[in-house]
Amino acid sequence: xxxxxxxxxxxxxxxxxxxxxxxxxxxxxxxxxxxxxxxxxxxxxxxxxxxxxxxxxxxxxxxxxxxxxxxxxxxxxxxxxxxxxxxxxxxxxxxxxxxxxxxxxxxxxxxxxxxxxxxxxxxxxxxxxxxxxxxxxxxxxxxxxxxxxxxxxxxxxxxxxxxxxxxxxxxxxxxxxxxxxxxxxxxxxxxxxxxxxxxxxxxxxxxxxxxxxxxxxxxxxxxxxxxxxxxxxxxxxxxxxxxxxxxxxxxxxxxxxxxxxxxxxxxxxxxxxxxxxxx
Length: 279
Description:
Blueprint: H1 14-34, E1 47-49, E2 55-57, H2 58-74, E3 79-82, E4 96-104, H3 106-111, E5 117-124, E6 127-135, E7 140-145, E8 150-152, E9 155-156, E10 169-172, H4 175-185, E11 189-191, H5 198-207, E12 212-215, E13 219-220, H6 221-234, E14 236-239, E15 254-255, E16 258-262, H7 266-278
Parallel strand pairs: 3-4, 10-11, 10-12
Antiparallel strand pairs: 1-2, 4-5, 5-6, 6-7, 7-8, 8-9, 12-16, 13-15, 14-16
């Protein structure tokens, strides 16, 4: 499939077709990675350290190559951005961009923790129009197409409605930041155990498994682009401290702290989030 970007791409079936292509590619890459994964045990894949000390495995690289082949042929007019591929300025001149993380949560993958994901998004004019967060070891596939909703394993996702202001909340993210948000809100916040895949953590807010989620400073576009659209199409949002949406396909791929929350809670949470960052 060749993508011909247009202002009405999301209403011309392009977003749905793109989502389905992303799902197919992510599931294929996930199946490949599962061949190296051992639940509760060290991966079978060779492990190396990247600059900065983070791990990369043979599974990351093989999944990245597969995604590049499948999605590059599906969307030949799109640029490419991946955690495991050297970035170039060439993508900046294109309206469409594929953003992938072949394994989000590599440390978990290496250690046998099933909470890792394959992430893929198609961005048009700075915002995602299709996105997939696939958790192969959990059998879960989150997906969204702009204007056509979000789903988990083909079941429609809808963020939860507003709750009483005094009700306790459940959240995922860095504990110090969440405690600061709790203090600002004046309500108790139950913090779930650390979720190694940032994309999966954000999708937990889209499905209502947590009331909100926080990403610490230094997340990257490949961690968040697919989950961003899934949140939006589920009736939630991923926003910066100022409350703005993220614009993708710029020279900047590293982000400051971000908040994922249902629309019904977002204004109140954003005030507390902003205050917590100021603290």
